[in-house]
């Protein structure tokens, strides 16, 4: 996510820190590079100009805060301005308890409206709401069936009347059904088109005027870049949007849509779709998103993911093993399973400060299919081999490969990744427990140069925050 911008901002901030002083010339040079970074990321031109104007104005006119050097002060100004542009504080949907609320989702075909409808319903149910999905897209082939499938996956009821009924009628009848079943949150999936056209806009306007939703939310594909701005502007002018939901944010390497949409509409971004799974749906936090875009990581989201996936007793037991330097392949397998629940190692590492946009963790990353192979390999080992990987010699590797349906190269790759994970964990524990290079139980912690470089990169990346 946002690889291009993260790389550019890491470079910009690095130059600021390495300079002998931050004067007007240095500020103007940084602003120029920010402008280029935004334009390359397909950020709206007006949003880019306003962002750079504010940075330059604040950086040249502000007093340096206590505890921050001039470079850190400029970085803080960039961060604060980014947060403000993305909306400031997180905005919550205003749904009245005990009252029936109607949410209308609009957007172009392919933006992810149908899947988003199910994700939103599942999220609102966590907040105590009782949602129902209404299939109002009568034009796209299989749209109704898709909504029924995703609705079933999240155990949310779906109301449909086929493709021969007017969408406004479907919305009204669905509302009656919701009232009869004592459901308080109605989410209407409307039809989209491949391009914005008058026929499409006329239909959604007619449905909106007839149905009178509590909230009209635009679903925008973050990967379309500058076109997302045109969509947002056009829909807002015609429907007076209440907010937006960004989808496919995990595939948005540039970041232009996330920055531009909020600026163009002036309306909050409520949620972000960050993957294909129905659980890949987050609240949109402007401060956390700004931190990701600027390469500062998103530790709060990382903690929340871990809390949802990892049992507290298991976490304490793992912490003890790390401190005692007794982390085994069984523990490694357990952590891989937890990582799969949280979206993958690459996704998690991108939330750490300084780890996004620079490929620092590529050699430790694993795809879903590779994780399955790793699980098969470890389960093909004996308890003794899982407890001490050093006993695994050539003949044992051949036996494990046969048992897991893999090859010797796969076994060697797994053992290398395991050793690297051990080194990382030992280094983290050593940093927390000892000083002067002494590690656990007074022993030196030996690490490869690559691992040491990565650990150093994780420290002191963005002081002052």
Features:
465 residues, alpha/beta, Four Helix Bundle (Hemerythrin (Met), subunit A), Rossmann fold, 434 Repressor (Amino-terminal Domain), 3 domains, eight-stranded mixed β-sheet, 20 helices, disordered C terminus
- According to CATH, the homologous superfamily of the largest domain is P-loop containing nucleotide triphosphate hydrolases
- Residue-averaged pLDDT, rounded? 79
* Largest sheet entry: 8 strands, mixed
Low-pLDDT sequence parts: 357-365, 434-465
Global Rg: 25 Å
User: What's the total count of β strands?
Assistant: 8
Notes on the structure:
With 465 residues, this protein is of the alpha/beta class. The chain has three domains: 3-85, SRP54, nucleotide-binding domain (Four Helix Bundle (Hemerythrin (Met), subunit A)), CATH 1.20.120; 101-296, 3-Layer(aba) Sandwich (Rossmann fold), CATH 3.40.50; 302-457, Signal recognition particle, SRP54 subunit, M-domain (434 Repressor (Amino-terminal Domain), Orthogonal Bundle). It has 20 helices and eight strands. The protein has helices spanning 3-18, 24-40, 45-61, 70-85, 113-126, 143-153, 167-180, 198-211, 226-239, 256-265, 286-293, 299-309, 312-323, 329-341, 345-349, 368-379, 383-387, 394-404, 408-433, 449-457; strands at 101-106, 131-136, 158-159, 185-190, 215-221, 243-247, 269-273, 281-283. The protein has an eight-stranded mixed beta sheet with strand order 3-2-4-1-5-6-7-8, with helices on both faces. Helix 4 (70-85) crosses helix 11 and helix 5 (113-126) packs parallel to helix 6.
